[in-house]
């Protein structure tokens, strides 16, 4: 089945460009468009897209709040949000990731990257450009705990190896890189990541990375 995509951006020309790129792919179908966050919420309820391509800065309701309502508790469907941003170091991206976005993409990214990002997010892989995600978290470290706060009780449910894996996820390593670092198979890493997400009640690797920073498990700037 085709991946159902909703385009959300306050610039009609950009939406048209994205639609032309995505509709050229046999496995992607653009099911609707919205010009602001409020329209996006209505369209998500009506159209049940798989992926919402979400601009951040829009009138009436911005992409951060729209993302929070689409992916938060009691959401109407399984839609995942891929955030679009003009700048690769945008403080609003951090807020969108915290709100539940599955990743982000620069608006001037090549067409093939946009298509691949849609497929990755739809498949639940979620973590896009992990090194850039980490740079965002590091840059806006003033909004994050210093690392001196008590460790949340939920972390105590993880095994030592699962804590290791979570730290490496937060550093932006892929499964293959984590496997090489820990001298285990990639399948084993996937199993550990799955256990971490389940035990902490997180949806994907992006949320796991943000959680690691916000809990103080990983300190901004640490290697």
TrEMBL record:
> Which residue ranges does the record assign to the Response regulatory domain?
4-122
Matching entries from Gene3D superfamilies are given as: 3.40.50.2300
Q: Which GO terms describe its molecular function?
A: DNA binding
The identity of this protein, by name, is Two-component system response regulator
Q: Name one GO biological process term.
A: phosphorelay signal transduction system
Q: Which UniProt keywords apply?
A: DNA-binding, Phosphoprotein, Transcription, Transcription regulation
Domain HTH luxR-type residue range list: 151-216
Which residues are recorded with the post-translational modification 4-aspartylphosphate?
55
């Amino acid at each position: 089945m085709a991946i159902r995509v909703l385009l959300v951006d306050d610039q009609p020309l950009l939406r048209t460009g994205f639609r032309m790129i995505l509709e050229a792919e046999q496995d992607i179908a653009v099911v609707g468009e919205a010009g602001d966050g409020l329209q996006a919420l209505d369209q998500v309820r009506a159209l049940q897209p798989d992926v919402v391509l979400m601009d951040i800065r829009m009138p009436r309701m911005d992409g951060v709040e729209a993302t929070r309502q689409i992916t938060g508790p009691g959401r109407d469907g399984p839609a995942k949000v891929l955030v679009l941003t003009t700048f690769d170091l945008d403080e609003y991206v951090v807020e969108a990731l915290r709100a539940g976005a599955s990743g982000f993409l620069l608006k001037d990214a090549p067409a093939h990257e946009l298509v691949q990002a849609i497929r990755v997010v739809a498949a639940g892989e979620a973590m896009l450009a992990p090194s850039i995600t980490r740079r965002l978290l590091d840059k806006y470290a003033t909004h994050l705990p210093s690392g001196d706060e008590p460790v949340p009780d939920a972390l105590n449910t993880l095994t030592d190896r699962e804590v290791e894996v979570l730290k490496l996820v937060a550093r932006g390593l892929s499964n293959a890189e984590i496997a090489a670092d820990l001298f285990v198979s990639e399948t084993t890493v996937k199993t550990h990541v799955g256990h971490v997400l389940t035990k902490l009640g997180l949806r994907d690797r992006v949320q796991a990375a943000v959680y690691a920073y916000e809990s103080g498990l990983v300190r901004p700037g640490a290697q």
